[in-house]
Amino acid sequence: EIRLSLVGSEMCIRDSHKHAKAVNIQAQDQLPLNQFVMQTCHFLHCPCLIANGVADHLHVLLVLATNTSVADVMKEVKRKATLFLKERNPSYYHSFCWQGGYGAFSVSIRHKDSVYQYIYQQQEHHKKVSAKDEFEALLRNAGITKYDEKFYWST
To answer: Residue 121: phi, psi to the nearest 5?
Structure first.
């Protein structure tokens, strides 16, 4: 039996493409990708509450199983999502890849619903805010005032 920790183990994970010139996720592939990522998380015993994003990144809110790490989950989600996109449209996604890093933030139960809504409204949100500005705001909200950009934005 796998026990899930509900306190402090819901994670919002954001992933951006490795290269600024990498192909973006096409609009018609976003919903199927979101659903696939959710299924992959469930397969990993990490129930996914929502997955959503826009062309160049993806957010996931999940409950992390107590016997796994965020790094292991992200590695498998990114691997499977890449294969999914390449199988869906091999000619378009032939060079698709995620960047090596990601951002992971614990989410309290008290903030779960607001984080869910934030992820749900990504398309509208990114009409006004760039992915980089969004990530830096997430860092500030987590109390991180300094970070080395090369670990997140470099190729």
So the answer is: -95, 25
